[in-house]
Amino acid sequence: MTAPDLTARVLRSGALTVALLAAVLAWAAGPWVGLGVLGGGVVALGNFGGMAREVARLAALVTAGAPGQARLPRIGLRQALSLGALAGMIGLGWAHPVGVAVGLASLPPVLLVEGLRAARAAA
């Protein structure tokens, strides 16, 4: 399995996980929490997908012998935009902070499970 395949699987599984968590928590704790889960999940998955693309491009540049430092400011800008989006959601009261944290925390388990699946398939 290639890195883009793994990234696509993580994004698909992550989107399903975030949608399920948001629906359950919106029903159990209210729509404000569900919106927080969706917002946090979108930021986490979007940041993961963007970082995966940037790292692949950076690796290709370095492998080809070109300097890769030109990509580093884009990675920093992506992080600043992600933090700004999170601060905006919480600061403007659009989403519950705990819901946002749940949405953000949904990515690591999905990444772990999909990574283990890919390792099993490769073995």
Report what the structure shows.
The mean pLDDT is 92. The protein is mostly helical. It has one domain. α2 packs antiparallel against α3. The protein is 85% helix and 0% strand.
Tally of domains: 1
What spatial form do the alpha-carbon principal axes imply? flat
Rg for CA atoms: 16 Å
The number of helices is 5
List the helices and strands and how they pair.
Elements lengths: L2 H27 L1 H33 L8 H20 L5 H9 L1 H16 L1
Helix pairs in contact: 1-2, 1-5, 2-3, 2-4
In short:
The protein has about 120 residues and is mainly α.
Question: What are the salient characteristics of this protein?
Answer:
123 residues, mainly alpha
